[in-house]
Amino acid sequence: MTHSSPHQPRPLRVALVGNPNCGKTALFNQLTGSRQKVANYAGVTVERKAGWLITPAGRRVQILDLPGTYSLHATSPDEAVTRDVCLGVYKGEPAPDMLVNVLAATNLRLHLRFALELRQLGRPMLIVLNMVDAVRRQGLEIDVPRLQAELGVPVVTAIGIRRRGAAKLVQALDGPMPPAPTPLPEGTDLHAEVRRLMALCVRRTTDRNPRLDARLDRWVLHPVWGMLILLGLLFIMFQAVFSWAQPFMDLLQQSMDQLGAFVGTLLPEGILRSLIVDGVIAGAGTVIVFLPQILILFLWILALEESGYLPRAAFMLDRLMAAAGLSGRSFIPLLSSFACAVPGIMSTRTIQNPRDRMVTILIAPLMTCSARLPVYALLISAFVPSRTVLGLFNLHGLVLFALYAAGVLSALVVARVLKRRDTEEHPLLMELPGYRLPGLQSLSIELWQRARIFLSRVGTIILTLSVIMWALSSFPAPPEGTTGPAIDWSLAGRIGHLMQPLFSFIGFNWQICVALIPGLAAREVAVSSLATVYSVGASESDAAAQLVPLLSAQWSLATAFSLLAWYVYAPQCFSTLAVIRRETGSWRLVWISVFYLFGMAYAASFLTYHITRFFTG
Amino acid sequence: MRLNELPLHCQGIIDHVAPLTQPDPIARRLEEFGFVPGEPVTVVAYGPFGRDPMAVEIGFTRFALRQSEAARVVMQDTSRTPPAAGALDPALHTISPDSLEDA
Asked: Annotated region Disordered: where (chain B) (predicted)?
């Protein structure tokens, strides 16, 4: 199918462009399905999404999904990319053959203005009137042929979230190239032109009725109810991650156990079997088990994002963020950082103010990312009794909530300190998009991309580290006839013993010190490293389950809490540091992050350890 | 009167946007969002802490903005009797040019 014959013409290159919230991404996912490639634009850190479509007539079309923008007067790096690509001046990105301008039919007044601005460029252009189904529900009717005639640009309708909802667009891409429109005279008032078009082409069919948005916003933006809804949603999110994922995790665990046992019977006793079963399967297995939790978290965040709720949460929290010197805009990158700081830091690109952006990047690692969950989960189930509190909440969930809260509060304090000399105005000004049901297809494509990233991490970094850990803790082997644990003789044991004096002040034993090392590359590996160090998990991947009784017997409560506190702060993830470097282009900021986070981690663990010891004796 | 002084659930007509600095990117963005002379705007909600930020509606679009941002939007004097609020269609949003001239 991808084979191109010499007679085939050059593929058509089109760019999807439109306001934020015009449903462009759903349309893009619908058009290209899984034939997508996500990369960065050369020189800047703005995500470049491109995909392929093959029309029924066999025409190959490359579709570029440009970042959403309200105008060609860019106020952020994202918007600058869109402007430059549309103008055809972006270096390394040839001008698209045609601009496909996506308009939300439900929000025509706002989106038409940008369409007119694009039209002024005088480039071949096609307008897609998206979400036409929702317009009827608004009691409005759009005269599409009239609009097309007035604009002098072909207009097709689409329903981005419905199957085959983009059929007319695909059909149009098969047809001849539309002629370039003639721009309006210089200095035309585009708002006046929008009004004229609206008056001509939009008609009310039924009486206006209170819209869904208006009714929902009465609750969601309410000072009291809105706050309760927000807290409720966040709380359910944490409970879901902890309890709904369990059956799936059990299932994965069983399959990994069976795999380990099966492979164990195939291989002869010896180094190779130990490497495969204890190093590879047990190592990767302990981490793969957390896939359901990570997916549930991402599903929740993606659904909130697509439903239009996230900007409302930013609205509710803006004043609190302002107290920390930030704007509600920082809320979305910070919330994404709960899944993983890497996409979170990448999404700070939507923050226009450079200083706001820098501070948001610095505090993003304090948002508890999903990779910390395995460690939290292990320690909580080992040291916190599973009890129901107030007949409703699980004590495990409450402790988890407290750990998340500690990260958030510290982040606010750090931001406040970093911004204390700052007097500039920080804009919030943003659209509150209409509510909509997240499209299943779009959600599953996005979720699949996250799952792939996670699994490829398991396949590469985590697997490598598991094997290195296995080697470090297996060699050199103890001499014949010695008693005591073999790990004491190994390299890992020696490194752990070397680190221990520094960490003894915060209650870490040498086993923890050993597990911290691979945790630097990927936090979640700490669990499997502990399993290796305590030599459990041989031929079985449910290391976490086996570790629970061991740890609760060997560690004091103070040590466990100290390690939890360490994990709230420690910058133990090279990918986060790498993305900070990439997004800011500065090593200085990377070193600042490393030192301040390690400093806070040590201080917090020190305090936690000694306070817990004081109370538990 | 400024937009940030408009009471909850009340509708007003925008007179103009007053830039605070030259150039004022926030004022420009407001205009791109459709905060332009003659446009009816309704206050949808005030934030939970100190009435800040506020949410307003123009046509079918809702925006969140801080008090300082809303203070750039100057509202028409109500004594100039704009068309009755009920006569404005939030979707078609426009007042006919004639009624503007009458005012």
From this structure: 74-103
Residue type, A119: R
Burial A433-446 (b: 16+ CB within 10 A, else e): bbbbebbebbbebb
Q: Give the torsion through C-alpha atoms of A379, A384, A389, A394, to 10 deg.
A: 30
Query: Can you read off the two tokens belonging to residue A189?
Result: 């008032």
Q: Domains along chain A?
A: 12-204 (3.40.50.300)
Residue of B nearest to A329 (CA): B64
Query: Considering only CA atoms, which of A350, A435, A430 is closest in space to residue B64?
Result: A430
Per residue in B37-95, pLDDT tens? 988 999 999 998 888 899 999 988 899 999 989 999 999 986 554 454 444 555 555 54
pLDDT score for B77: 80
Query: Nearest C-alpha of chain B: how many angstroms from A135?
Result: 10
Q: What is the pLDDT of residue A13?
A: 93
At residue A78, the pLDDT reads 81
Nearest CA to CA, how far is A78 from chain B (Å)?
Answer: 15
Sign of CA dihedral A560, A561, A564, A570: negative
Return the H-helix or E-strand segment holding A359: helix A354-363
> Peptide bond preceding B23: is omega within 30 degrees of 0, i.e. cis?
yes
Q: Quick one: fold of B3-102?
A: SH3 type barrels. (2.30.30)
Nearest CA in chain B to A105: B60
pTM of the predicted protein model: 0.74
Distance between CA atoms of residues A44 and A391, nearest Å? 52
Residue A131: what are its φ and ψ, rounded to 5°? 60, 40
Angle CA A499–A503–A509, to nearest 5: 80
Nearest-CA neighbor of A302 among A440, A102, A456?
A: A440
Is the Cβ pair A434, B60 closer than 8 Å? yes
B33 lies within 8 A of chain A by CB: yes
Q: How far is B88 from chain A (nearest CA, A)?
A: 11
Instruction: State the best of A73, A191, A350 to mutate against chain B, taking most chain B CBs within 10 Å.
Output: A191
Rounded to the nearest 10°, the torsion over CA A414, A416, A418, A420 is: -160
Is A432 within 8 Å of B64 when comparing Cβ atoms?
yes
- Please tell me the predicted confidence (pLDDT) of residue B35: 92
* Residues of chain A found within 8 Å of residue B58, distances taken between Cβ atoms: 109
CB B50 within 8 A of CB B56: no
**Residue listed under structure tokens 């570029």:** A64
Q: What residue segments make up the domains of chain B, in order of their start?
A: 3-102
User: pLDDT value at position A207?
Assistant: 64
Is residue B2 classed as helix, strand or coil in its secondary structure? strand
Q: What are the chain A neighbours of B89 within 8 Å (beta carbons)? A: 204, 208
Q: How far is CA A385 from CA A104, A547, B89, in A?
A: 52, 16, 59
Cβ-Cβ contacts under 8 Å for A321 (sequence gap 6 or more): A314, A327, A328, A330, A331
Question: Which of A503, A564, A172, A124 shows the shortest CA–CA distance to A380?
Answer: A564
- For residue A375, the tally of other CB atoms under 10 A from its CB is 23
Q: Which parts of chain A register pLDDT below 50?
A: 1-6, 537-540
Q: What is the pLDDT of residue A162?
A: 79
Indicate the SS3 state at residue A14.
strand
User: Is A199 at the interface with chain B, CB within 8 A?
Assistant: yes
The set of residues, in sequence order, having a beta carbon less than 8 Å from that of A69 and lying 6+ positions away, is: A17, A19, A20, A78, A79, A82, A83, A114
CA–CA distance, A253 with A543 (Å, rounded to integer): 10
Tracing tokens 């001008």 back to the chain, one arrives at A95
Any A CB within 8 A of B61 CB: yes
Torsion angle of C-alpha atoms B14, B17, B18, B24, degrees rounded to 10: 160
